[in-house]
Design goal:
It is built from no helices and 30 strands. By secondary structure, the chain is an all-beta fold. It has a single domain, classed as YVTN repeat-like/Quinoprotein amine dehydrogenase (Methylamine Dehydrogenase, Chain H), CATH 2.130.10.10. The strands form 8 sheets. Strands 1-30-29-28 form a 4-stranded antiparallel sheet, with no helix packed on it. Strands 4-5-6-7 form a 4-stranded antiparallel sheet, with no helix packed on it. A 4-stranded antiparallel sheet has the order 8-9-10-11, with no helix packed on it. It starts with 38 loop residues before the first strand and ends with a strand. The relative contact order is 0.17.
Length: 351
């Protein structure tokens, strides 16, 4: 199939919602620096005895703390924050596992956790040492993916009929954001000015499109000429990244800059996905290489896409598999291999 095989071991809903429309691919409105910067690799994976455990660095708080998950002594994933060289597990909602996805400047952390008895995932807000269950839209499960500076939390939640809808949670109330005419939707991130991005199904659930919810309105962001697309993140400037099908059926990392839909290309293969974008317009994600047998993390600088492996110090034994997020300081939360093992890593620009 030649599509990127995502290795992300996170708690996500199996909400298959698709898409269809045509948009022109053109140059992006960005101001990113050229990818000539070299990166230092900081290993975040904890050691369990003589071998490393499992961890994933999935994002950053607005204050710069890395968030994600790491295995505990029992091998269960625990929502984790990394700050000043220390890793802190922040617990669960009573179940065995949890994952953190985002946070604000006040170190309020959001994610999802198994509830007591491991019966369902619930979105959580962690603040002042306490994990708060955000509930659902009347169904069994929910998942939180983003939080803005005002404390608005977004994600996906099940309704009583079993469908999954994008939600916005604020001041104790979870609201259904609706769809593009179909039955399902999902929110992945919320920007500095309140724009929420994700994807939503079209009438008849024939497909789903990348979607932006702004000021009470739902906007279809379209595709690169294929049937489906999804928005994964939004920058402080309002630029949106994710992926889209093309007319030939391939999937490419995509940037929506407010007026244009931009194909970011690949690292030589047929597929790529964009996961994160910062204020400067630098985009990170994952792409297949020529032949589509291997995938590598990429950085896109506004004009070209490069493998992050090529930006590590000469002789580095690290190989960066996927980049999940990039903050406004240019630091990248990623997954990499070293000595045949997978590690959560933080890539720090050296210049």
């Amino acid at each position: 199939m030649g599509r990127v095989v995502r290795r992300t071991l996170v708690m996500v809903v199996g909400c298959a919602i698709c898409a269809a429309a045509v948009a022109g691919a053109t140059a992006a409105r960005v101001s990113a620096a050229a990818p000539s910067t070299l990166y230092e690799v900081v290993d975040l994976t904890p050691a369990n005895g003589d071998s490393p455990g499992f961890a994933q660095a999935l994002g950053f708080t607005l204050g710069g703390t890395v968030v994600g998950a790491a295995s505990d002594s029992s091998g269960n994933l625990q929502a984790t924050v990394w700050s000043f060289g220390n890793a802190l597990g922040i617990g669960t909602l009573g179940g065995s596992s949890s994952v953190a996805h985002d946070g604000d400047r006040h170190e309020r952390i959001v994610g999802d956790s198994l509830s007591e008895g491991d019966t369902a995932f619930h979105a959580f807000l962690w603040r002042d040492g306490t994990m708060i269950d955000l509930g659902t839209l009347g169904g069994t499960s929910s998942w939180a993916r983003g939080i803005d500076k005002h404390g608005t939390i977004v994600g996906g939640a099940e309704r009583a009929d079993g469908s999954v809808r994008a939600f916005a949670w604020s001041d104790g109330t979870m609201s259904d954001l609706g769809t593009l005419g179909g039955s399902a939707s999902w929110a992945n991130a919320v920007g500095a000015h309140g724009t929420i991005v994700g994807n939503a199904s079209l009438p008849g659930d024939i497909a789903s499109h990348a979607t932006a919810w702004r000021n009470g309105e739902t906007h279809d962001l379209g595709t690169l000429g294929g049937t489906s697309s999804a928005a994964r993140n939004v920058s402080a400037r309002g630029d949106v990244v994710g992926w889209s099908d093309r007319a030939d059926g391939s999937v490419h990392a995509t940037l929506w800059d407010g007026s244009r839909t931009v194909d970011l290309g690949t690292l030589g293969g047929t597929s790529s996905l964009a996961n994160g974008i910062n204020r400067s317009g630098q985009v990170v994600g994952v792409s297949t290489l020529a032949g589509d047998t291997l995938s590598k993390a990429f950085l896109w600088d506004g004009s070209r896409i490069v493998a992050l492996d090529s930006l590590l110090a000469a002789g580095s034994s690290w190989s960066v598999i996927e980049a999940f997020a990039i903050d406004d300081r240019g630091r990248i939360a990623a997954e990499a291999t070293f000595d045949g093992r997978v590690h959560a890593v933080l890539l720090i620009p050296l210049t």
